[in-house]
Amino acid sequence: MRFLQTYIRWTDAINEGVGSGVAWITGSLVLVVCYDVFTRYVLQSSSVAVQELEWHLFALIFLLGAGYSLKHEKHVRVDVFYSQYSPRLQAWVNLIGSILFLVPFCALVIWSSQDFVFNAFHFSETSPDPGGLPARWVLKAAIPLGFFLLLLQGVALALRSVLHLRGEEGAV
User: Fold this and answer.
1) Three-state SS letters, 76-141
2) What is the pLDDT of residue 141?
3) Is residue 171's pLDDT more than 80?
C-alpha cells in the first residue's frame, strides 16, 4: 500500500505544479483577450495571430489543466446524484468510472493522437491563415501530454478510491 500512497502523492504533486503553470497561462489569456478587444474596437485593427493565440492558450488551459481539475474535483460530474451518495458509494463510483471510462478513454486519445502529432511535427505545420501563428505542432503535442496528465490523475483517483474502500484513505 505504500507504493499506492507514493504514486498518489507523486501524481498529485505533478498536476499541482502543472496547475500552477496553467494559472499563469490563464492570466496571459486574459491579457491577450483584453489586447484583442482594445485593438479591434478602439483602434479598428485586428490580427489573425492574436486571435489564434487566444484559442491556442485556451486549448493549453483546457488540456493541461484537466488533471488538476480532476485532482481538485472541479471537473464536470452529475452532482445531482453523486453528492447525495455516501463516501463509500462515491469511492465505488470513482473507482469503477476511472477503470471503465476515464483510463481507457485517456489511453485511446494518447494512442490515436500520436500520428496526428508526429505528422504536424514532421511537416512543421503552421497556421493555414495568412498572418497566423507558426509551429502549430506545439499545440497539437499538448493533446497527448494533457491526456497523459489526466490518465495519471485518473489512476491516482482509482487508487485513492481503493484506499478509501480499505479504510486507509487518511494515509494519503
Assistant:
1) CCCHHHHCCCCHHHHHHHHHHHHHHHHHHHHHHHHHHHHHHHHHHHHCCCCCCCCCCCCCHHHHHH
2) 93
3) no
